Amino acid sequence: MRTGTASGAEKPGGIEALAESLALAVRRSGASGGGIYLVDDTRQLLSLKVACGLSREVADSWLQVPVTASVPISDAFREGRVVWVGSQEEMALSYPQTAAALPYRYAFAAAPLSGRSRCWGALFLTWPAGHSGRASLRERGNLAAHGRRVARVLENAGRAFVPPDEPHMIPVDGASERFALSAHAPADLLERLPEGFVALDLEGRITFITSRAASLLGRRVSQLLGTRPWQSLPWMDQVLVEDHYRTAVISRESVGFTVLRPPDTWLDIALHPDSSGISVRVDARRSGPGDPPRTASPPTPAASIGRLYQLVHLAAALTDVAGVQDVVDLIAVQILPAFGADGMVLSAADAGRLRIMGHHGYDPETIESLDGLPIETSLTPAGEALIRGVPLFFSDPDELAHSYPAAPRISGKQAWAFLPLISDARPVGCCILTYARPHTFTADDRAILTSLGGLVAQALDRARLYDAKLDLAHTLQQALLPRSLPTVRGLEVAARYLPAGHGMDVGGDFYDLIRLDDTTAAAVIGDVQGHNMAAAALMGQVRTAVHATAGARPDEVLSRTNRVLADLEPDLLVSCLYAHIDLARGQMSLASAGHVPPLLHRPGERPGVLEIEPGPLLGIGVDLPYPITTVQMPPGTILALYTDGLVEVPGTDLDLMTSGLAQLLAGRSRPARLVDKLIHHSWPHGLPTDDIAVLLLKAAEA
After folding, report:
1. Integer CA distances (angstroms), 399 to 362, 371, 408, in order
2. Where are the beta strands (DSSP E) in 77-204?
3. For the chain, what is the radius of gyration of the CA atoms?
4. Which of left, alpha, beta for 586 (phi over 0: left; psi -120 to 50: alpha)?
5. Which pLDDT does position 184 carry in this prediction?
6. What domains lie within the chain, and their CATH numbers?
7. What kind and span of H or E run contains 540?
8. Whole-number Å distance between alpha carbons of 119 and 116
9. What is the spatial distance between Cα 101 and Cα 556, in angstroms, rounded to a whole number?
10. Measured in whole angstroms, how far is the alpha carbon of residue 314 from the centre of its chain?
11. Residues of the chain whose pLDDT is less than 50?
């Protein structure tokens, strides 16, 4: 079994301190287990690096979590807050995907690893089922403090810290040594009792078994030690048996059940878990009223319950993906680790050819040689799998070379699963999972991968349609925004538009800079209510109306634009801020139609929010007043106009966010660099929940 640890001096630098911090958090909070995820900014992933009190089987299903995933760990990291889920019912309501993958009774909490200048990842803790579902302010504060403590460890380690490739697994403190007297005394005691007793570790392996238990299970002690019961005893290879074990490990609740040992012996099994493992009592069932019938056929072996829950989790995750790249990322991050694969090629059927949509674990030259192959190709089995609609599995290169002699040499892989992607009886493409070593595909593997192929096919079909619509929406969005801003002597300008991280509708945010003459210009920014084609169309009409009246007083520009909207009767409201800039006189006049106030920094003054008396939103009525605010604009003055997507960040205080953005204006960055700093300050991971438009103006210094 992989442990992901290194011994002694071979451990990566800093991992011991990280492990100690996690163990301290688990111990002080009374948790049963926990883990530390660190962020990979380049791939937008959170990777599990240290785990405590968890079985490796559970950890393997959650080695990597996308930053954008709707799970407690990602939410804690993205939003910079403590996420507390006190019960399985609450998990099902708030995080249905997580609840589907781990349908057990337990409490869960996650906290960001918030450092001085960045968030490093997230810490999570789990508690047994009996833990109180509600968290006090003190508990939340303590959890946040543990997260900050881990962040300090990472900051102190700096570049010397090298995170392990696989999670470092540590036991819960104090779980290893229980008996101070003779090591034989507990075993002798158990051997004298009429029942049988077994000890399992958190991975489900038998670490101790009495001779009576071995007799009841129908095996010798030597045949059972080190094995998992549902693997060494065919009649225990049932979904429910393994599920009882997982329930005990995760919820830390005692579990009892009855199982038939063929041909007619019923055994009562009781599982009693704690932080170090599970104590099991085995006894032959006594006859009595309500007992199950004494004759029954042995249960049919079924797929691993972990795999079944994993499939449910992956199915739920695939329903949430949007574009093709999301499908590729999900396969690479969650599906490959779940099945022990290390490579993947996802291709789509296009005009009789297989066009590669994404890949993982392949070099560009190999991908180039595979891209665009005819579906009827004899070079690889991908076309055959798609035409026949039947998955093909090859456990080693010799098996593949028997039918496709050249295929093993293409990539150098050692095992392959070719999954045809069929959606609504149409061939969508082919998903190829590959292995660096020979791999035997069990019946469970084949059944689950076949089902998974159908789910991927539907997700890929939806994703291609989504991407096509998204491309159309973005093309329209860019057509409605100015392609470039005019040059105005004495004025430095920069602008950015950032679409929301989710959704594919056209946004209504807009900005513009209008050159009036050599020394005057008009700046405008606005936000149309909604995210749809109607909002985009109205945005274009508002821009046109502003252009037509630009140069007039700011209040007249907004009033005339408002009358245009009243004639159109769009049923949508628009916020807008218009600024008339007179560089010769060194001043500007502004009027607002319910828009967020701009940020202002003048040389020698503290930066802050420019307080403007707002008028009504455009579209509310006609002949309404729009007060004018006039301020001086000496050389070096910086004015930042923006839409509310920049400052309305979940989990943050609006005033603190605005104040923090204003302080950035005091630096000496050029406008283009400063705009990027503003956006990164609010959304460091580039995943805003609403569209963002920023227009930054700086009066050139003499």
Report:
1. 21, 24, 10
2. 83-85, 107-114, 119-127, 168-170, 196-200
3. 31
4. left
5. 55
6. 8-170 (3.30.450.40), 185-305 (3.30.450.20), 322-474 (3.30.450.40), 482-699 (3.60.40.10)
7. helix 533-549
8. 8
9. 59
10. 13
11. 1-13, 174-183, 287-290, 292-303, 504
